[in-house]
């Protein structure tokens, strides 16, 4: 069983035309596919909370290679471009309602409400038993707010939201695309401008799987 | 089982737009990416350009590119 799943590959034998000089053409093979990780049996959830491993994160993969004089796409080709995931910009702050991860400011707001309720109870309720019940109710309400939020939010955290809503692969976005861009091999946009270790480029498993399939099928030599 | 689908296309890049002519289906597509990285595609018909949806309003340019695609041998 493979580490990554690919079901369909679209291969475009593409000829790029120059509108002013239609005889000057570049021939490329463009490969488009979607892939998602095959978790089991490679990764078994370590705990019932390890939920992300059960979720399909599906990414578009794009590879464009200029064909050689024999009309074939070769691993030796120096004219190629690649991308994993969409071209969208990473959203560092998805809507709180949609993600189970609780932002610190949201938590602070809920805590402040709890503390206000407790302070009010301490200030206004004389009866000791009633006061302790009111304090416990405020604490329970705070815990219930967290539980309700986690039960209703659809996505796990910021990364999960960006992956499933925007189709961005976080690894590729932060580590692969900046390197590909620097060496002129990125298809589309790079949004990531933080420091990147250019000496350590790597290909995520989705890209390796695609290359593996293309070599096996004789599409890439 | 991996399903492989082949297409024969002609492309022209113009500014931030990509025109793609599918030689098998005879369809012309326009692709572009907006400032937030959202990817768009539009199927263009020579009989009805759908210019209200098309970011390129130059009818003559669209016609010229379609002519180049159709005449390419």
Given the structure, what is the number of helices of chain B?
Answer: 1
Oligomer: heterodimer
- Total number of strands of chain A: 4
- Class by helix and strand content of chain A? alpha+beta
* Whole-angstrom Rg of chain B: 13 Å
Strand order of the largest sheet of chain A: 1-2-3-4
How much strand content do the residues of chain B show?
A: 35-45%
Q: Element order, helices and strands of chain A?
A: EEEEHHHHH
Major β-sheet profile of chain A = 4 strands, antiparallel
Q: State mean pLDDT of chain B (0 to 100 scale).
A: 86
Helix percent of chain A reads: 25-40%
Portion of residues in beta strands of chain A equals: 15-25%
Largest sheet of chain B: 4 strands, antiparallel
Q: Which short descriptors sum up this protein?
A:
heterodimer; A: alpha+beta; four-stranded antiparallel β-sheet; 36% helix; B: 73 residues; alpha+beta; 1 helix; globular
Short description:
Chain A is built from 5 helices and 4 strands. By secondary structure, chain A is an alpha+beta fold. Chain B contains 1 helix and 4 strands; from the N terminus they run ββββα.
Question: What does this protein look like?
Answer:
The complex is a heterodimer of chains A (221) and B (73). By secondary structure, chain A is α+β, with helices and mostly antiparallel strands. Chain A has two domains: 4-91 and 160-216, no CATH class; 101-152. In chain A, 36% of the residues lie in helices and 18% in strands. Chain A has five helices and four strands. Chain A has a four-stranded antiparallel beta sheet. Chain A is elongated, with a radius of gyration of 26 Å. With 73 residues, chain B is an alpha+beta fold. Chain B has one domain. Chain B has one helix and four strands. Chain B has a four-stranded antiparallel beta sheet with strand order 1-2-3-4, with helices on one face. The longest helix of chain B has 13 residues, at 59-71. Chain B is globular and about 40 Å long. Classes of the chains: A alpha+beta (221), B alpha+beta (73). The A-B interface holds A 6-19, 22, 30, 86-89, 188-189, 191, 213, 217 and B 2-14, 20, 33, 36-39, 64-65, 68-69, 71-72.
């Amino acid at each position: 069983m493979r580490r990554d799943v690919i079901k369909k590959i679209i291969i475009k034998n593409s000829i790029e035309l120059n509108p002013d000089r239609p005889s000057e053409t570049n021939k490329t093979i463009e490969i488009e596919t979607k892939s998602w990780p095959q978790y089991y049996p490679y990764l078994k959830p370590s705990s019932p909370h390890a939920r992300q491993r059960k979720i399909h994160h599906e990414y578009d993969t794009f590879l464009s290679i200029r064909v050689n004089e024999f009309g074939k796409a070769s691993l030796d080709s120096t004219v190629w471009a690649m991308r994993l995931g969409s071209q969208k910009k990473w959203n560092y702050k998805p809507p709180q309602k949609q993600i189970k991860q609780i932002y610190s400011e949201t938590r602070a707001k809920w805590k402040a409400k709890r503390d206000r309720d407790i302070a009010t109870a301490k200030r206004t309720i004389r009866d000791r038993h009633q006061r302790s019940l009111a304090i416990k109710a405020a604490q329970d309400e705070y815990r219930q707010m967290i539980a309700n939020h986690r039960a209703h939010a659809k996505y796990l955290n910021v990364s999960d939201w960006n992956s499933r809503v925007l189709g961005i692969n976080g690894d590729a976005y932060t580590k692969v695309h900046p390197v590909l861009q620097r060496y002129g091999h990125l298809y589309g946009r790079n949004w990531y401008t933080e420091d990147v270790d250019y000496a350590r480029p790597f290909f995520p498993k989705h890209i390796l799987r695609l290359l593996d399939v293309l070599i096996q099928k004789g599409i890439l030599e | 089982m991996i399903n492989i689908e082949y297409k024969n296309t002609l492309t022209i890049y113009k500014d931030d737009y990509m025109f793609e002519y599918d030689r098998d289906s005879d369809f012309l597509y326009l692709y572009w990416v907006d400032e937030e990285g959202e990817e768009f595609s539009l199927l263009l018909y020579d009989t009805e350009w759908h210019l209200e949806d098309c970011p390129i309003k130059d009818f003559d340019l669209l016609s010229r590119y379609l002519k180049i695609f159709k005449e390419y041998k």
